[in-house]
């Protein structure tokens, strides 16, 4: 039950204004309130799963009722406070780095500290500030860590629209930002939803995808997506896709880079999102020389840790196969083949050496 000081619509509106101000103080670029209705997305989602487009991400088929009823994730939830945070540092190269084939390209969200930790900490602080104001406040923070259809939720909150590349786009920030949600038991006034998706006839994201992973607008076949292949997938990367992956060793930003809306992106001022260990400009040869201990040390607190050392070497082998031929490239591939105990790594090293006309 609400305390007497929050029993009126005016009091709730005033609290909402303060919440949005606190969110800005905590580094969030936008904050919206929504009571989501997601049942209309269920058939489309189930059809996507039925096509097998999720690949080995079996968890995407779990907890189906919760995906379309977010309030069931946290008892008493009446609203979701949706926030966004820019993650692209201003001085980090993007297209230029993709064109430097001897350098590694890592998705720009993964260059610094793990965003789950950064955003969850700020969301929890926001929840505590609300609790200090409203004693009976119940809340729970989520950051890409539960069956939450966050892009559709953000669209319903009026934060932007789901683009043809399946990312959330906004007219003021493109798509270089991350999302988080604070579930709350307060019946706060909601923001109006986005009424129109402003992609128009543009389909640059579809046309420019290196591996043709888009079946059509708003439909991604993850099995061909470089982000899936380099992060989520644990097997042998299909041979026909390897040469198309270029120097991308962890994730892919191409469908953002070609989107016209990204020119309006806000750069991140967060220290936590600044590159660590020169990962925005590291040589492929240098990274392949890391042993597992070095990998674990230098990816501590980073999203890159998720891929694991074996897949890290697998991804690097593919990128080195696509790199300009040099003695250094051939030498590090041969050294990796000799040292690795992984048949998966060796398979990709053999392929990479063959691209340079060398047999293992």
TrEMBL record:
The 4Fe-4S ferredoxin-type domain covers 186-219
Q: Where in the cell is it found?
A: Cytoplasm
Instruction: Provide the binding site for [4Fe-4S] cluster 1.
Output: 199, 202, 205, 259
Which terms under GO biological process does the entry name?
Answer: tRNA queuosine(34) biosynthetic process
Question: What keywords are assigned to this protein?
Answer: 4Fe-4S, Cobalamin, Cobalt, Cytoplasm, Iron, Iron-sulfur, Metal-binding, Oxidoreductase, Queuosine biosynthesis, tRNA processing
Its top-level enzyme class, in one word, is oxidoreductase
**The protein's name in its UniProt record:** Epoxyqueuosine reductase
